[in-house]
Hints:
By secondary structure, this protein is mainly beta. It has one helix at 20-31; strands spanning 36-40, 45-48, 63-66, 71-79, 92-98, 102-111, 119-124, 137-141. A hairpin with a 4-residue loop joins strand 1 (36-40) and strand 2.
Amino acid sequence: MDEVRQWRDEIPLYYEYTAGLAGERFLRGLMDGKILGGYCESCKETFLPPRVYCVNCFGEVKRFVEVPPVGKIAAITEDYGPRGGAAKKGRDRFAYITFEGVTGGMLHVVVGRAIVGSVVRPKFKEEAERRGSILDIEGFQE
């Protein structure tokens, strides 16, 4: 029988993912307290999340516009489960929020008693606390 040999080693791999061109514009908009969508000049349509190419005509999206400051809850769910192994008190509420004149929408936390059909606004963190993350929005509230 052959002798079994082994050794321990590590392969240091480091990954950096970018948000992409449209994602970066979106995240920079959040830092400024704005939700940005991609606007297709040909189709006259705004997309959220923003894209660099229109899903209708495949044209390049060169313009990013601020979506309306109020949205409507299209769907909502509640989560009572623990996070990261820690016991959790209460619930988290998540909603899919749509905006007038915008194709698509966004999923985020709902603050308060909002229900499907409620008109909500984003509650942004203080400007000094924003980091260019989806979490720059603390949640949506009536």
